[in-house]
Amino acid sequence: MQVHVSSRATAAVQLTSLSCRLVGARCRIVGIVSPESALDDLADTATVMSVNASYLAELVVTARRHGMGPDDFRLRRIDCVSEILSTAVRDAAELTFGAPVHDNFGLTEAIPVTATSCSAGHLHHDLASGHVEVLDLHTGRPAHAGDLGTLVVTPYFPYRECMPVFRYDTRDVVRVPHGTGECEQAGLPGTSQILGKAEQLIHLASGVVVTPRDVVEAIETLPGQSWPARFKATPEGDRIGLCLTESAARGLSRSGLVEHFAERGLAVSVTVVDEDQGPALRPVRSDLHELAFPAPVPVGA
Ligand SMILES: [Zn+2]
Known about the structure:
By secondary structure, the protein is α/β, with parallel strands linked by helices. The chain is about 25% helix and about 25% strand. The chain contains eight helices and 17 strands. A five-stranded parallel sheet has the order 2-1-3-4-5, with helices on both faces. A four-stranded antiparallel sheet has the order 8-9-10-12, with no helix packed on it. α2 crosses α3 and α3 (about 55-65) packs across α4 (about 85-95). The chain binds zinc ion. Zinc ion (ZN) binds near residues 183 and 185. Zinc ion binds next to loops.
């Protein structure tokens, strides 16, 4: 298993490496290194990859640039955790790496309580390791079917032996579905996928609430395929003031961009900024580069 979450996520990395030891699998903790270096390692022996959504996006872009495809990898499964994984990036990752991508949920504060995605696009929460509630963002009461709510998690003893937390409010927003039907995990309570952080919801004057996932999904289907999406979205009356980078906007005129978002239910006014402003618009986990020691300076240089 090759692990591409930040090496500073010590709890998650520790759990992953212990799990690998239990099943006798080799575990390679690589972290957020240069995508080229990560692909070199991946192309070797890894059959499972654990990765953040933004770094997966970088790996896909880099692999495509180098003409790499499914025949270059031995991956059987990709486990994606944290951040919003768009349909466009997930589909591209599955094509490029030739392995299914599972979009899971977990956060250090609530470890070991996690959730896994099913083929119907729900997020199913593990009842055995903790108590998971979906609470209304304003009243703190249980959210109703169709409403947005924040995931509130209480890990159980003995899975959580130190630093107990009670009703930890993640501020990760989901929508409560009207039942989850007959999917393969129907026995477990399900919600929508994570839609973004509560403080990043966009409240329009019309009363409509736009989630960060709505915006990420729309941006990452732009023809420029500038992944991971870098943007800033703010309410401007009934519209979203959307700031994009040049590479994201590439290939479409200003009116073409507005039309692209309108087709996805988003009324926007677009501003385009220089590429180097991207990371400041929306920091992502793959920005947490882990640098190696530089090569020693040759004698006499
Ligand atoms: Zn399901």
